[in-house]
Here is the input.
Amino acid sequence: MILNAVEAQKTALSLLRAARDSVYFWGYTLDRQDIVDALVDARKHQGCVVMVLVDKKKTFEGTTTLMMGQVAKLRANGCIVRVARGVNLTAEYNKAGRGVGRGLNGACHAKAILSGTWLLSGSTNWTTSSRCNIERSTLVQLTPHEARMQYRAAEEDGAASEEFTEELRRTEEDRQQAGRAEYPRSRSEPAPPRAGFGD
Here is the structure.
């Protein structure tokens, strides 16, 4: 079944409310309170193991302003929260005969929910603004074998990521603060070039 963003988010809530064992949740961006509440309920009231995997850069530096708080709320309520990013882009761009700046990495761009034998996956972000975008997701009922394969892949994604902790949060905030302090300027001055960007 192919769903638009509003339908996908409504289906996500139904899947989360029906979860009985475990839930794997991937999010590029996340600010929807109803989805966060449903993940917390799956953990606290339905007894599920809830593993949330979100993009590291979007969590710490992205423009989804409520994301950090939502991710922290999930962790504080017993969900396993991990942050991930893709691998360095240089090798892939070199294979294509193109250059790319050093230090640039891919993203954790997945947007999916795996619960039981149900997989909801597609382009729908877990944000309020995505409800206004042209985004599509697909709901698929997996065979037991397919579900086991997807759970194995989800566990591999989790193992390749890093735990979201208060210490990591403070470290990232300090790093960002230091980066901003490095270039103090008035609002009327143009921003200086960012070291290493585009090299």
